[in-house]
Design goal:
Elements: H1 16-23, H2 27-34, H3 41-53, H4 58-68, E1 72-77, H5 83-98, E2 102-107, H6 112-124, E3 129-133, H7 139-147, E4 152-155, E5 163-167, H8 169-182, E6 187-193, H9 198-214, E7 219-225, H10 229-240, E8 247-250, H11 253-265, E9 275-280, E10 293-297, H12 299-314, E11 322-324, E12 326-329
Parallel strand pairs: 1-2, 1-3, 3-4, 4-5, 5-11, 6-7, 6-8, 8-9, 9-10
Antiparallel strand pairs: 10-12
Helix pairs in contact: 1-2, 1-3, 5-12, 8-9, 10-11
Length: 337
């Protein structure tokens, strides 16, 4: 809703903040308008109405803004070929470009040293903010992030005194654990990852364990792997030589697909012999036979939210951390015992 302009207000020089206030929009929206970025038609008309009231020339404002802004956001990702990263980055890129910003991407290939050096490199470049897709937060990460004088958003990992966007890993894990316990599984194996990834290796794992224990499951094995398909296949292959679980819970869909392959190779039927569960909700999970029971996270929402929040921080607006929800996808890979 556009604020009514008092006659006295027209006698003083208007600021961009006041244009935003009178037009009933955010300061970042006015910034996008003057810089030629995407703004809804209705919003554009309101901004132009305020400018006409004050005889403001958008071109002169744009020159000032361009001198002060690079309209570039530094984005650091551990990979560009994983299904989750691709979905987050695609949504992030589209949302930033709608707002007139360009993402500058660095792929660290899961190299911690490269990730830390990338943070410092971006701090010396003419970027307006940094978005970090994190697999872990070490004391060195905390040291560098806390000394940055730029707006920062951290995805996938929680961190004090920094705006974060995380998945609801604990509740998702707990619901899966309860689902398996309620279907009377008793010999459960959890295929997970190292605790260096706190979100998946600690929080999601603890949720699964709590859900299992709440529903009476006491026999729980844990296998540690990395996020790769081949390593996970090898880990499951060795385990199946000496163990016969009635359910395999996998920390990601990629790990579940590795387990799927090895269970078939061992002559075990899914779900008649072994139930199988994943996390992620990858499209490929639906074409497995039987279809995988999994947890779907909205990675596109995570990417769009990251873009929106970094722009709010750049505009100087208060921002709170966000937790992304999930949906349980009932496939055909879990059976009641």
């Amino acid at each position: 809703m556009m604020k009514r302009i008092k006659e006295d207000d027209r006698m003083t020089k208007i600021t961009m903040k006041e244009i935003a206030e009178f037009a009933g929009v955010g300061k970042s929206t006015v910034s996008r308008y003057f810089n030629g970025g995407y703004v809804k038609e209705e919003t554009r008309l309101r901004i132009e109405a305020v400018c006409r009231e004050y005889h403001y020339q958008p071109n002169s404002v744009a020159k000032t803004l361009k001198a002060r802004h690079s309209y570039q956001i530094g984005v650091i990702t551990p990979s560009i070929d994983s299904r989750t990263s691709a979905r987050v980055l695609t949504a992030l890129d589209e949302q930033l470009r709608l707002s007139g910003y360009t993402p500058l991407l660095i792929n660290t290939n899961h190299n911690e040293i490269r990730e830390l050096s990338s943070l410092e490199s971006f701090s010396r470049m003419n970027v307006e903010g940094i978005i970090l897709l994190a697999t872990q937060i070490t004391p060195e990460h905390e040291r560098i992030l806390h000394k940055l004088r730029l707006p920062v958003i951290v995805l996938a990992q929680e961190m004090a005194n920094v705006v974060t966007i995380t998945l609801n890993d604990y509740e998702a894990g707990r619901e899966v654990g309860q689902r398996i316990g309620q279907t009377h599984h008793q010999a459960v194996c959890l295929l997970g990852v190292s605790e260096t990834d706190k979100a998946v290796g600690i929080t999601r794992k603890q949720g699964i364990l709590d859900g299992l224990q709440e529903t009476g499951v006491s026999s729980i094995d844990f296998l540690e792997t990395d996020f790769s398909f081949e390593t996970s296949r090898q880990v499951v292959r060795e385990y199946l030589k000496t163990h016969r679980p009635d359910c395999l819970i996998c920390a990601t869909d990629n790990l579940a697909m590795a387990a799927f392959k090895e269970l078939h190779s061992a002559g075990l039927r899914i779900p008649q012999d072994v139930s199988l569960v994943g996390f992620g909700g990858y499209d490929v999970s639906e074409v497995l036979t039987p279809a995988l029971t999994t947890v779907r996270f909205d990675y596109e929402l995570e990417g769009r939210t990251a873009a929106e929040l970094i722009l709010e921080l750049i505009a100087g607006n208060p921002v709170e951390s966000v937790k992304i929800g999930y949906t349980m996808i009932e496939g055909e890979s879990v059976i009641e015992r």
